[in-house]
Design goal:
The N and C termini lie far apart (41 Å). The strands form 4 sheets. An 8-stranded mixed beta sheet has the order 3-2-1-4-12-6-13-11, sandwiched between helices. It contains 8 helices and 14 strands. A hairpin with a 2-residue loop joins strand 7 and strand 8. The chain has 262 residues and is α/β, with parallel strands linked by helices. The protein has one domain: Alpha-Beta Complex (Spore Coat Polysaccharide Biosynthesis Protein SpsA, Chain A), CATH 3.90.550.
Length: 262
């Protein structure tokens, strides 16, 4: 598919809810500042009341829709909003969606950079705190499949749980060297909070929760099953490590809990 990187009609979109109020204005201003001529901004608010919606719908230059989903769990409400974004893009003739998280602040060149690769799924990169062996580390939110040789070495050392039968069941973070290379990598899971999707992808793939039979293998976040289904349809997944986004994640966490997973 031939892509004119500067003319494609792009929808920049994000689900949000009232607990994101602490960073929402900075987020919107960063989207408005993106250096590209042909995009619109859509926000899906899945808060449990309309108070936040009434506040943010007054912001000029964006379209805000209230997601009146009846889902109870936060994760399922998020998935509902993601899918409504996909439907909106299809109904309104967008060729691409830049699917954002509302605590991720993109660089102004994100669209030009991601579109230039001519990929159906391509993200920038951001970082988040992860607890590894009891210690909090700031790591890239992007993973590759664990190499087969590494898997076999760890298996011989007894460091691989027996439930993992193949290296294809395990992922690893991008390394410091990979991130600092500022190169484009094919990945297992991208930084999905700043992920460009072509119409080839979102015309028939929807967000769902990972089936329970697979939840022991991987954390059941909103993008995991979407990415898996896309890969199953033959799409390759990429991450451009030169497109570095800020992650204003701290404000939504209290007492070490992740509100999305509650």
């Amino acid at each position: 598919m031939q892509i004119n990187s500067y003319m494609e009609k792009v929808l920049i979109a994000s689900p949000t809810y009232d607990r994101m109020d602490y960073c929402f204005r900075d987020f919107i201003e960063s989207l408005k500042a993106i250096d590209y001529e042909n995009f619109d901004i859509l926000i899906l608010d899945n808060s449990r009341t309309k108070e936040f919606f009434e506040k943010i719908k007054k912001i000029l230059g964006i379209k805000v829709i209230y997601d009146n989903t009846e889902e109870e769990k936060n994760m399922m409400r998020l998935i509902s909003s993601r899918n409504k974004i996909l439907e909106y893009a299809l109904e309104n003739g967008y060729e691409y969606i830049l699917m954002m998280d509302s605590d991720v602040i993109p660089p102004i060149n994100i669209l030009k950079m991601l579109l230039s690769h001519k990929k159906d799924i391509c993200s920038g990169i951001y970082f988040s705190p992860f607890i590894i062996s009891g210690k909090t580390q700031i790591l890239p939110v992007a993973w590759k499949i664990l190499e087969e040789s590494t898997f076999e070495d760890l298996k011989k050392q007894g460091k691989i749980d027996e439930k993992f039968k193949s290296h294809l069941n395990l992922r690893r973070y991008l390394t410091k060297e990979e991130v600092e290379s500022k190169e484009l990598f094919e990945v297992f899971i991208p930084s999905a909070g700043c992920m460009l999707l072509s119409k080839n992808v979102f015309k028939d793939i929807r967000y769902e929760l990972l089936p329970k039979t697979e939840m022991e293998m991987i954390t059941p976040t909103d993008e995991i099953y979407f990415i898996k289904k896309a890969r199953g349809k033959g799409f390759k997944i990429y991450c451009d490590t030169s497109v570095i986004c800020k992650h204003l994640v701290g404000g939504k966490f209290k007492e070490g809990k992740n509100p999305i997973l509650e």
